[in-house]
């Protein structure tokens, strides 16, 4: 089988008896080239199957017009929504996006950072793994003055641009809402404390209890990856003995929905016997029965702010005085639904 030969602008120029420079300018819509010539050149490019070499162009002008994005899992509602917003907004600025997922593996995150650096991306946007506490693999971007932004899951003491949700207020608001609805024994299902999100949500949960003179009980807090299987196992422990809690604050909506499923199995009524608050305002929270109260993190706003900050860093890249290290906090809002409606029956029993 013969090897496929890539067509170049030289081939287009030879076919049309034009100079290479004219073909190049026509393909790039140079205003000094007539519309007729542009049309001829583009038609011939399509006929020959010409594909522009973005890598070669990037090497010439030191810009790839490509941004790297690393998220934990593209299957999750929050990072998936933000990824879509980032891609759409970047296209408005003429940038392409390479989306990578770390699968919450630190080693995979390190490998992806190196791969994207080698690909000569013009900037990197990252939501880290649950377990990233050493950020030195990102130094190659900082040291080479390549724009770097962290969002959602962010480092605590690493001097970069950070855009994050108001997770402390989110934890405080969710717990206070349960207390205002009459709950006095509130379980919190958290993610691992190696991740900034959950440290802050737990802190907000504790503050709300303290403010309302309710005890903080270590046995009422679970630290785990927020998967369906883990949520089910937590429920088996929570409901293994009475009295049952009268409220649960879950740090994601998958966990909240799983808790409701478990409650149906053991005939605990939501919201009559138990009230539940989730986190992220996943669309599923509106269509399950009963609909789940959740904390909206405004992913569209966060995605838009990430792109705006990135474009500012790229624009000011050559400026030694441009501010590169700052923190921006995106607000939250509690969306009250039926899972926290009505009155609480204290110390729910098995039916």
Characterization of the model:
The chain has 351 residues and is an alpha/beta fold. The protein folds into three domains: 44 residues, Orthogonal Bundle (434 Repressor (Amino-terminal Domain)); 136 residues, Rossmann fold, CATH 3.40.50; 137 residues, Rossmann fold (3-Layer(aba) Sandwich). 42% of the residues lie in helices and 15% in strands. The chain has 13 helices and twelve strands. The strands form two sheets. It has a six-stranded parallel β-sheet with strand order 2-1-3-4-5-11, sandwiched between helices. A six-stranded mixed β-sheet has the order 7-6-8-9-10-12, sandwiched between helices. Helix 7 links the parallel strand 3 and strand 4. The C terminus is likely disordered. Keywords: DNA-binding, Transcription, Transcription regulation. One of its GO terms (molecular function) is transcription cis-regulatory region binding. InterPro entries: HTH_LacI, LacI/GalR-like_sensor, Lambda_DNA-bd_dom_sf, Peripla_BP_I. This is LacI family transcriptional regulator.
């Amino acid at each position: 089988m013969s090897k496929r030969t890539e067509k170049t602008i030289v081939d287009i120029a030879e076919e049309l008896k034009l100079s290479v420079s004219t073909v190049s300018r026509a393909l790039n819509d140079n205003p000094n080239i007539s519309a007729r010539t542009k049309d001829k050149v583009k038609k011939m490019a399509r006929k020959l199957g010409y594909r522009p070499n973005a890598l070669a162009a990037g090497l010439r002008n030191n810009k790839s017009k490509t941004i790297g994005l690393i998220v934990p899992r593209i299957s999750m509602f929050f990072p998936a929504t933000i990824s879509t917003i980032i891609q759409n907004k970047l296209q408005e600025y003429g940038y392409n996006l390479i989306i990578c997922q770390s699968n919450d593996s630190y080693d995979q995150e390190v490998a992806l950072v190196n791969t994207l650096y080698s690909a000569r991306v013009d900037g990197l946007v990252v939501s880290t793994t649950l377990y990233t506490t050493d950020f030195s693999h990102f130094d190659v971007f900082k040291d080479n003055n390549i724009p770097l932004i962290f969002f959602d899951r962010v480092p605590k003491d690493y001097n970069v641009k950070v855009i994050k949700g108001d997770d402390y207020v989110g934890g405080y608001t969710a717990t206070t809402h349960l207390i205002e609805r009459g709950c006095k024994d509130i379980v919190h299902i958290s993610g691992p404390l190696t991740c900034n999100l959950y440290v802050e949500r737990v802190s907000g949960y504790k503050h709300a209890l303290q403010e309302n003179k309710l005890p903080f009980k270590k046995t009422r807090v679970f630290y785990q990856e927020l998967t369906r299987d883990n949520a089910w196992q937590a429920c088996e422990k929570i409901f293994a003995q009475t009295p049952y809690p009268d409220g649960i604050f879950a740090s994601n909506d998958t966990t909240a929905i799983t808790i409701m499923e478990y409650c149906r199995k053991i005939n605990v009524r939501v919201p009559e016997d138990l009230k539940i608050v989730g986190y992220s305002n996943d669309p599923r929270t509106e269509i399950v029965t009963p609909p789940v109260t959740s904390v909206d993190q405004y992913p569209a706003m966060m995605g838009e702010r990430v792109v705006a900050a990135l474009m500012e860093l790229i624009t000011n890249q050559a400026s030694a005085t441009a501010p590169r290290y700052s923190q921006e906090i995106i607000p939250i809002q509690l969306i009250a639904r039926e899972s926290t409606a009505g009155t609480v029956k204290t110390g729910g029993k098995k039916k």
